[in-house]
DNA sequence: CCGTTTGGAGAGTGGCACTATCTAAGCATG
DNA sequence: CATGCTTAGATAGTGCCACTCTCCAAACGG
């Protein structure tokens, strides 16, 4: 199919598709002549994935490129591709200083990971984006006056563990390695807003259950 | 304290503090003369909250203002303030169309909420930001070829419910209504990256457990 | 009295995700 | 072949956002 049809079928403007092609988020089409290129179904699928990552998953373009190129990096094996892809995913602010508060937070996190026997996370991936994001969040909470101990974090870690099992079960539904790779990235990123919104809804529900009045005020937000 | 000291103690540049004051994220200081203003500890705390929301919680400035003004809106009672504040929090893309896929997603979500007996969410807050974010995510997943049924969502909802209970228990540790309000906002927002990073770490851990290195990983399937 | 500091306001900056414009080369039709 | 529409590709521009810079006049302080 031509670029125009790709645009029509995906709902993405042609200018934006051209931009994605330029940025390497989308592999170039099969050149048919100097001014024509042919795109396949795979391009459409990839385009939808890009849109989902960028718009719903809030993944920056540059990170999305890293993720997607990792997915098809022939020099890596299956699990290395996935690791590289997920590694490129998150996007938290870099820590500004390594002060006492941060050391405390790191100790708390390490205690938690040790208690859970998550030794892999502690050793080979201690500087993974996820680990750093966790430490940064704990630091921020502490500075705000909400210190969180390993005990406080434990319920979230347990939830994370159960969800991870669910996630991997979902991914295992897919047969081919390529499908699994895409599914892993898509499900990791796109279930995040699912989880967060369900938590918010549950908070409102539980709050109503405890304190009994509707959460929503009346006089705001047309 | 003066603006300069506020800056020094918070680590936020004076220019940025002035910007926050202009934007109404920070209440003005007590005017001492035409060119002097005095700031209290409360300003410092508020400033730290703003920074946490904006930098770690990725809340846009405009939303942060809505949240913070709701927290001190004297025309609302305690729970209305909290509702308004949390209502202003998230920031997903607005849905583009109300097509068949979206209707399906809505039905799936409603089924899930009904099954959980989350009637409040279904009725009075059916158009809450969280509900819309959830529907949008399900739509995106479906369009990508990852349909998720109410059964698929159930584990995430279950996790959300347990976390909501934990969250409210944490908030109840605080005595005064004002403290509870700030805690509710801070903990809702700042535990999000905690939860997401713990999920990522757990995924890596579980993945290693299933497919991992020959040393420790044995093919234990869950 | 005078250099420095302060609060305030407006304009400017840099990053990012597009988006509009332009150009040259097709392809389609008469 | 002439004519007009479409396409791929490149370059420059747009809008938004979170700051950040510059300036001013008042005022503090030695």
UniProtKB/TrEMBL annotation, chains A, B:
InterPro entries: DNA-bd_dom_put_sf (IPR009061), MerR-type_HTH_dom (IPR000551), MerR_fam (IPR047057)
Alphabetized UniProt keyword annotations: DNA-binding
Domain of life: Bacteria
Keyword Secreted: no
Domain (HTH merR-type): residue spans on this chain: 1-70
Gene Ontology molecular function, alphabetical: DNA binding; DNA-binding transcription factor activity
Database matches in PROSITE patterns: HTH_MERR_2
The protein's name in its UniProt record: MerR family transcriptional regulator
Organism encoding this protein: Streptomyces alfalfae
